[in-house]
Design brief:
Length: 603
C-alpha cells in the first residue's frame, strides 16, 4: 500500500484565550494517499476550512493556534511535521508542495497586482523560471481553466474579472507548480456547471497523471459523488463519519450524514409540479407544501431591450478602443410574488444584468420599469427612494460587508438610512433579522472576519431583507452555503415570498436549486437571453442547444453515475469584446409554447 502524502493525527485547533477559548477542530485524524481525493464535507463553521488552513499553517494569521496533533507531509527529502515547521520551511512548501484554492476569490487575489504578476510570482520563486517562461506557463494555465482571451486577461486586475473568472484564476495559481497536495476549499462555488465539470475533470486528470493528492472541501454533495474516493464528514469540529464515497451515499451511519444527504436538491425532483416547493429540513418529517401560484399575476419588473457595455481602453493615452458587450438587448417580465432565475456561464452577463437593473452600473440603452416607475429616468434623489423597493444580495459576502463595522451596525444601516427604526425598536428588528436567517444573537457584536463564508452570506441576506423591499436581486445568494443552511435560506426566501409577496431575480449557476425555487427561468449566453419560459418548459423541454449543454453538465448526487471519466468537450467561449463600429443584431425569438421563447440563431 502506498504511503500517504499527508497525515493528520489528532489535530486540535483553538481560537481566543482563557475563558474565551473556542475549540474549532477537535482531535481530527485522516490521511490522503497519492492519486486520492478525500472530500471533507459539513456545515458552515464545522471546521472544514480551519483544518485546511492548519495544513498550510495559515490558521495562525487568523488568530488560531494548533495546540495539539501532528501534520505529517511526505516530501522527496523526507517527512515534515507541518505543525512544528519554521517559517522558512513553510514558505518553501506553500505553493510548491501544497497548493490551495481559497474559498473567496476576490479576497484571495491581490487587488493591486495584475493577473500575470500573481500567476508568475510562484513559478519564478519555486521553479526558477525566467520572466518569459513564467508568462508562457501562466498563459497555458489560463487556457487550461478555460478563461476567454487569456492574453488580455493577464494584463487585467482582479476587479476587472467576473466572480467565476476570478475563481478560475485562483485555481490556476494553485495548480501552477503541480503540487503534491492540492487543497481545494469550495473551488467550484462561483462556477457554472459547464466550467465546474471541466475544472473537476482537470483536477481528476492531474491527480491520475501526476499522483497528486487532493483534499476537496465542499458543501455540494453532487460534486462529492462525482470526484471523491473517500469522504470525511465533519460536524462542530469533530469527524462524525469517514468512508469510501459509495458507502457514504448508499449506507450513511451518522444521523448528521443522513440529514446532509436528505437536504440535497436533485435535478428532476420538481417534474410535474406547478409551483416552487420548499426543501425538507433536518429533523422536519412533514411533507413540503408547494407555494400556491397567483391566479392573476401582476408585473412588478419589466425590462425592455436592456443593453450594457463596458469600455476597453488601450494605448499610451488610454483611449476608448473597444467595448465589452456584457448585456445585449435583454427583455423579460417578473411578476409580483414570483421568482425569475437567470442562469448561464460565468461571464455571460448575469451579474451585469442585475447591477444594470439597480443602476449600480449605467446601462447604454433600454428601459427598466419597477412598479410602473422607470428606474433609468430617476434623478439621484428619487433613485435613492426607489432603491428601498429593490435590494441586492451580492455574490461575494466578504467584499460586500464592511470589515470595520460590527454585524449589528451593518444590518441596522439601511433601517437608519431610510428612517425606518431607531432606539430599542431598531435593536429588536436587527435581532429579529438575525433570527430569521438562523444566526445566533451573540454574533451581533462580531466582525465579518470572525464568521465563516456561509455565515457572512446570511448576514448579507438579513441586510437585504431589512427594508422590506418589493424586489430582491439575489446574485449567487446561496452558492456559499452548505446544503442544510442553503435549504433553510431557500425555504426562508419562499416563505417571505408567500407572506410578503416578494419578487426575486435569482441569479445562479446551480440548476437543481433553480429548478426548486423558480417560476420562470431565463438562460443567458454571451449577454443575451437564448431561452426563456416557465420552469417546467426549460427543464423538461429545453430547445436551445446551450440550455441542453447546461443541463447535461449538471453533476448527479450518485457515485455510480460519474461524468468525469468521459471526455468533456465544450466549445470555446467567444469573446464579448467588439470594436466601436460593431452593431449587434436585435434579439428575435421563436415561440415554442405560450411564454416559452427561443433565440433565433441569426441573432
Amino acid at each position: 500500500m502506498t504511503d500517504p502524502i499527508v497525515t493528520l493525527d489528532r489535530l486540535r485547533v483553538t481560537f481566543g484565550a482563557g475563558d474565551a477559548t473556542v475549540t474549532a477542530v477537535k482531535d481530527v485524524s485522516f490521511s490522503i494517499a497519492p492519486g486520492e481525493t478525500v472530500c471533507v464535507v459539513g456545515e458552515s463553521g464545522s471546521g472544514k476550512s480551519v483544518t485546511s488552513l492548519s495544513l498550510m499553517r495559515l490558521v495562525e494569521f487568523g488568530g488560531g493556534s494548533i495546540v495539539d496533533g501532528r501534520l505529517t507531509l511526505m516530501r522527496p527529502d523526507g517527512a515534515v511535521d507541518l505543525a512544528q515547521a519554521d517559517t522558512a520551511t513553510m514558505r518553501g512548501i506553500r505553493g510548491h508542495d501544497i497548493g490551495m484554492i481559497f474559498q473567496e476569490p476576490m479576497t484571495s487575489l491581490n487587488p493591486v497586482f495584475t493577473i500575470e504578476r500573481q500567476l508568475t510570482d510562484g513559478l519564478r520563486l519555486h521553479l526558477g523560471l525566467s520572466a518569459a517562461a513564467a508568462r508562457d506557463r501562466a498563459l497555458a494555465l489560463l487556457k487550461e481553466v478555460r478563461i476567454p482571451e487569456p492574453e488580455r486577461r493577464l494584463k487585467q486586475y482582479p476587479h476587472e474579472l467576473s466572480g467565476g473568472m476570478r475563481q478560475r484564476v485562483v485555481i490556476a495559481i494553485a495548480m501552477a507548480c503541480a503540487p503534491r497536495l492540492l487543497i481545494a476549499d469550495e473551488p467550484t462555488t462561483a462556477l457554472d456547471v459547464t466550467i465546474q465539470a471541466e475544472i473537476l475533470a482537470l483536477i481528476n486528470r492531474l491527480k491520475r497523471e501526476k499522483g497528486m493528492a487532493v483534499m476537496f472541501i465542499t458543501h455540494d454533495m453532487a460534486v462529492v459523488a462525482q470526484i471523491a474516493d473517500r469522504v470525511v464528514v465533519m460536524y462542530r469540529g469533530d469527524v462524525v463519519e469517514e468512508g469510501p464515497v459509495a458507502d457514504i451515499f448508499a449506507n450513511p451511519k451518522a444521523d448528521y450524514t443522513k440529514a446532509l444527504l436528505a437536504a440535497v436538491p436533485r435535478l428532476g425532483e420538481m417534474r410535474g409540479k406547478p409551483a416552487p416547493e420548499p426543501l425538507r429540513l433536518v429533523g422536519d418529517d412533514r411533507a413540503p407544501q408547494p407555494l400556491t401560484p397567483a391566479a392573476n399575476p401582476e408585473p412588478l419588473l419589466e425590462v425592455n431591450h436592456l443593453t450594457t457595455y463596458f469600455p476597453v481602453r488601450g494605448g499610451p493615452l488610454r483611449r476608448h478602443i473597444a467595448n465589452i458587450h456584457a448585456v445585449e438587448d435583454v427583455s423579460f417580465t417578473l411578476n409580483k410574488g414570483e421568482t425569475l432565475s437567470l442562469v448561464g456561464e460565468s461571464g455571460c452577463g448575469k451579474s451585469s444584468c442585475g447591477r444594470s437593473i439597480l443602476r449600480l452600473v449605467e446601462p447604454a440603452s433600454g428601459s427598466v420599469i419597477l412598479d410602473r416607475k422607470d428606474v433609468l429616468d430617476q434623478n439621484p434623489r428619487d433613485l435613492r427612494r426607489l432603491r428601498r423597493d429593490m435590494q441586492m444580495i451580492f455574490q461575494d459576502p466578504f467584499a460586500s460587508l464592511n470589515p470595520y463595522m460590527r454585524l449589528s451596525a451593518q444590518v441596522a444601516e439601511p433601517l437608519r438610512n431610510f428612517g425606518l427604526a431607531a432606539g430599542s425598536e431598531l435593536t429588536d428588528r436587527v435581532a429579529a433579522l438575525f433570527d430569521r436567517v438562523d444566526l445566533p444573537r451573540s454574533y451581533l457584536r462580531r466582525f465579518p472576519h470572525e464568521l465563516s463564508g456561509g455565515q457572512r452570506q446570511r448576514v448579507a441576506i438579513a441586510r437585504a431583507l431589512a427594508v422590506n423591499p418589493k424586489l430582491i436581486i439575489a446574485d449567487e445568494a446561496v452558492s456559499a452555503l452548505d446544503v442544510s443552511v442553503q435549504a433553510q435560506v431557500l425555504n426562508l426566501m419562499m416563505e417571505l415570498q408567500a407572506d410578503l409577496g416578494l419578487s426575486f431575480l435569482f441569479i445562479s449557476h446551480d440548476m437543481a436549486v433553480v429548478e426548486r425555487v423558480s417560476h420562470h427561468v431565463a438562460v443567458m449566453y454571451l449577454g443575451r437571453i437564448v431561452e426563456i419560459g416557465p420552469r417546467a418548459a426549460i427543464f423538461e423541454n429545453p430547445q436551445h442547444a446551450y440550455t441542453r449543454t447546461l443541463l447535461r453538465a449538471v453533476p448527479i448526487a450518485d457515485p455510480g453515475t460519474r461524468k468525469l471519466d468521459s471526455d468533456l468537450s465544450f466549445t470555446p467561449i467567444p469573446s464579448p469584446m467588439h470594436d466601436l463600429t460593431y452593431r449587434p443584431a436585435p434579439s428575435t425569438y421563436d415561440t415554442v409554447a405560450p411564454g416559452h421563447l427561443v433565440l433565433r440563431e441569426n441573432a
